[in-house]
Amino acid sequence: MVMGSGSPSLPGGEFALAWAAMTAAPHDALFKATFSQVELAAEELRCVLPPELVAQMDLGSLALAAGSFVDEALREQHTDLLYSVRLAGRPARVYVLFEHQSSGDTWMALRLLKYMLRIWEAGVADGAERLPVIVPVVLHHGDAGWRAATCFEGLFELPAEAAEFTPRFRFVLDDLAVHSEAALRERAASAFTRLVLSALQQVRSERGLAELLRGWVGMIRELQAAPDGARALRLVFRYIFEVRGAEERGIIEATASELSRESEEIMETIAQYLRREGRQEGRQEGRQEGRQEGERSIVVRMLQRRFGELPGALRERVEAADSRQLERWSDRLLAASSLDEVFAEAPTQ
Q: What are the pLDDT digits (tens) for 171-210?
């Protein structure tokens, strides 16, 4: 197996935010919790970008940038992260869009052009004298595989005479549906990145969860031994539970007895976690309101940790917020440099 040098590093605050967002939007929460960590984002980029581009890119300079540029109406289908990086010694951007519809978006290249324009416009508003190069990347985990164009000019019936008048760019596509399970397990990346990509690819399938977990035992064992690996595993297990539910708990427990002693302990850990979640799931009365109260408390605590005591008006906004608002503020909090960026009425750009 090809191994990467990165390891998960989930600070308590970011872990709490991802945990709180998992129920409402498990795919988005897992994507952001993973790739908001620049060392893990760098692993993904090394695997999917053209090698000649990677050779010119200083991935050691990769940094998470503030802002989300996705249309509000599309946030249930798309989630995005923006990074700054040095490319051939010059400032550049890498824009990663996570797309989780069941099939590819026919107009993705057009949407990307719109989001890229927003990034450039934000730079101009900040006083930039030159526009940075933007490398667009789409991570897709639909079941059927990507069928749409991956270049902007592919949206046109373009006569040769008009080519010079048409914007030309392509985006890098990491379509998880086209990779074999073995290929993801053997990527040159950390166990956390490989396990997350495997979960995004396979958890929504109709295959039994116990069968999937057997294939992940090596990655689970490796992640257990990594720094902060237990916390990363808890996040992956939570994702599995939110997507698949509790119906396969008994199968998981039965599978544990079929494995070697070391693997059995790992499987028992998963089974115990799912049993605990199942007991919590059974407490229906007041569950939704209790979850929102917990989310509000987490957001307040993280805001105070980043920016100090909250003004009374902002605290009142948090205490009156619904899950969607809390999720939006939590997303912004990961990269925001001020309270104004977190609480802006329009998506931060």
A: 999 999 999 999 999 999 999 999 999 999 998 888 877 7
Q: Is-above-0.85 flag for pTM?
A: no
3-state secondary structure the chain: CCCCCCCCCCCHHHHHHHHHHCCCCHHHHHHHHHHCCHHHHHHHHHHHCCHHHHHHEEEEEEEEECCCCCCHHHCCCEEEEEEEEEECCEEEEEEEEEECCCCCCCCHHHHHHHHHHHHHHHHHHCCCCCCCEEEEEEEECCCCCCCCCCEHHHHCCCCHHHHHHCCCCECEEEEHHHCCHHHHHCCCCCHHHHHHHHHHHHCCCCCCHHHHHHHHHHHHHHHHCCCCHHHHHHHHHHHHHHHHCCCCHHHHHHHHCCCCHHHHHHHHHHHHHHHHHHHHHCCCCCHHHHHHHHHHHHHHHHHHHHHCCCCHHHHHHHHCCCHHHHHHHHHHHCCCCCHHHHHCCCCCC
| pLDDT tens string 41-57 | 999 999 999 999 999 99
